[in-house]
Design brief:
Layout: H1 11-32, H2 42-73, H3 81-102, E1 108-110, E2 113-117, E3 120-121, H4 123-160
Antiparallel strand pairs: 1-2, 2-3
Helix pairs in contact: 1-2, 1-4, 2-3, 3-4
């Protein structure tokens, strides 16, 4: 059986996926859920939250997971909208999945509901973890899809002229 190889995306699209997309996802998450940090101005809260989320939650998974996946999938998988968006969601979600599954406090509460009891996650904790992971996956999915869609629109406009 012959192995099918696909055309590799251009270098600028890979650079955008590694540099711009994590920052866009961090900004979207900061707008959705800005941290307070004692800052009075809402814009400053969003900017500071974007910086923290990008530095601690967006760029490390992109470097550790995203770059090796780009190298592995290059030429093996077509760079379609669905493939890029799903890989973006997986890269964004995987570290948080590991943190919620393998590491947890001894006791924890959320809105008067026990999420961890004696070091074990409760059903309410599982519901909270699934909600968090779904939110993160949606931001990763949407940002990767938006960048790919934008690059396709650019290609279609340039091919018309």
């Amino acid at each position: 059986m012959a192995v099918t190889t696909f055309a590799s995306p251009p270098w600028w699209r890979i650079a955008v996926a590694v540099i711009v997309v994590p920052l866009a996802a961090s900004f979207a998450y900061a707008v959705y859920s800005p941290a307070y940090q004692g800052l009075p101005d809402m814009m400053e809260r969003i900017v500071q939250t974007t910086a923290v989320v990008a530095f601690f939650a967006a760029y490390p998974p992109t470097v550790v997971l995203g770059i090796p996946l780009i190298i592995y999938f290059r030429g093996r998988v077509r760079a379609s909208l669905a493939n890029c968006a799903m890989v973006g969601a997986a890269i964004a979600t995987f570290p948080w999945f590991c943190l919620t599954v393998f590491f947890g406090p001894d006791e924890a509460y959320t809105n008067d509901h026990i999420t961890y009891h004696n070091g074990m996650m409760t059903w309410w904790g599982l519901l909270e973890a699934v909600e968090l992971l779904a939110e993160i996956a949606v931001f990763g999915h949407c940002c990767r899809a938006a960048v790919l869609a934008g690059s396709r629109l650019r290609r279609q406009k340039s091919s018309r002229f």
